[in-house]
Write a structure and sequence with these properties.
Helix content is 61%, strand content 0%. Helix 14 crosses helix 15. The radius of gyration is 29 Å and the shape is elongated. By secondary structure, it is mostly helical. It has helices at 3-23, 35-49, 58-77, 91-110, 118-123, 128-135, 153-161, 174-203, 210-215, 220-227, 231-240, 269-276, 281-293, 299-308, 315-334.
Length: 336
């Protein structure tokens, strides 16, 4: 494996780990970086720093990867200001991570497999047709294929006798170029995830304090999102300054359902258990967030998704919470 391949594989793994971590986040999850993400970044930084630096990997090795490594060290230090209140790295970390992903895209665009020279191929028994159509050609076209789709033996012999007389030194095989372009387009689309997270973290750094937002009449849920804090933290500040903490529409009006009358029927076990249990605030929030994220999903699907995320909730509970949420929204709209 070449030095270029080592660098590109290591940085690709770091980018992949970061993006998988971002894609796996669910409402209520900790925003603290996972160990595998941090290890992948550290490994990529070491590989980029040790050994020679290929031209196409210059930015990766000398600029963006060292910057991300420094940001990670700051985050791991735990000093004041090294992370957001919700455990996420600071905006500068995400800016550095996005720069690595971008530099990786730029390097990938020019990373193509080297093709053996024509003279070498002929010497080793490769036929003219194989050279024209399969090695230097692609889908019936290539530098050694005529407009009529015929192998141009004269050009092959010319290139064999005088290298780069037909094939320029910087020539890129069409199939390789197309594959790199496709990867570039795919990766560029994913850069938006970094940008959104970076902007979102910056928004959490607005100068308004929790106290001020409470005095301004902001809902608890608005403060949670705006400051990157938990509900409990908001309530502590409200109590400290003797302020009223108000829930937003669709949250405070959701009432616990009364226990259902037990029925001696094996098919009603789930309904009886679900209605007898009182969903806590966190469960309500998770169900409502899942429903608002995709209103096309039914109660059973949402319950299954939340169970996968580790939340023990029954289908009937989900259905009741969603019904209460819809009713509260209707009431709120009617008062406007």
């Amino acid at each position: 494996m070449t030095r270029t391949q080592d660098i590109l594989m290591a940085t690709s793994e770091a980018v992949r780990r970061i993006e998988n971590w971002m894609a796996g986040l669910r409402p209520g999850d900790s925003m603290k970086l996972s160990d595998d993400v941090m290890l992948a970044i550290e490994s990529a930084a070491v590989i980029c720093a040790e050994g020679d630096i290929p031209e196409q990997c210059r930015d990766l090795c000398t600029l963006v990867m060292p910057k991300l490594a420094v940001e990670l060290q700051t985050y791991q230090s735990g000093v004041d200001g090294s992370c957001q209140p919700n455990g996420s790295p600071t905006p500068s970390f995400w800016a550095a991570a996005r720069a690595v992903a971008k530099a990786r895209i730029d390097s990938d665009q020019t990373f193509v497999e080297t093709i053996e020279p024509v003279a070498f191929l002929i010497k080793n028994g490769v036929t003219h047709d194989q050279i024209a159509f399969h090695i230097y050609g692609w889908r019936g076209q290539g530098p050694f294929v005529t407009g009529n789709g015929i192998c141009n033996v004269a050009l092959i012999e010319k290139e064999a006798a005088t290298p780069n007389s037909v094939i320029p030194a910087d020539w890129v095989h069409p199939s390789r170029f197309q594959a790199a372009a496709a990867r570039k387009k795919e990766l560029e689309a994913r850069l938006e995830a970094y940008k959104i997270l970076e902007v979102g973290q910056k928004r959490n750094q607005d100068p308004a304090t929790i106290e001020q937002m409470l005095r301004d009449g902001c809902y608890i849920q608005q403060i949670e999102r705006g400051k990157g804090v938990t509900r409990e933290e908001v309530l502590v500040v409200a109590e400290e300054f003797d302020l009223q903490a108000i829930d937003g529409p669709g949250y405070a009006e959701i009432k616990p359902l009364p226990p259902a009358t037990p029925i001696n029927n094996s098919h009603t076990d789930e309904s009886r258990d679900s209605s007898q249990s009182d969903p806590d605030d966190f469960t309500r929030q998770m169900v409502i967030a899942a429903y608002e994220g995709d209103p096309t999903k039914g109660a059973a699907e949402i319950a299954a998704d939340l169970k996968t995320d580790g939340l023990d909730v029954k289908t009937v509970q989900v259905s009741n919470i969603i019904r209460g949420h819809k009713n509260s929204l209707k009431k709120a709209a009617a008062t406007v």
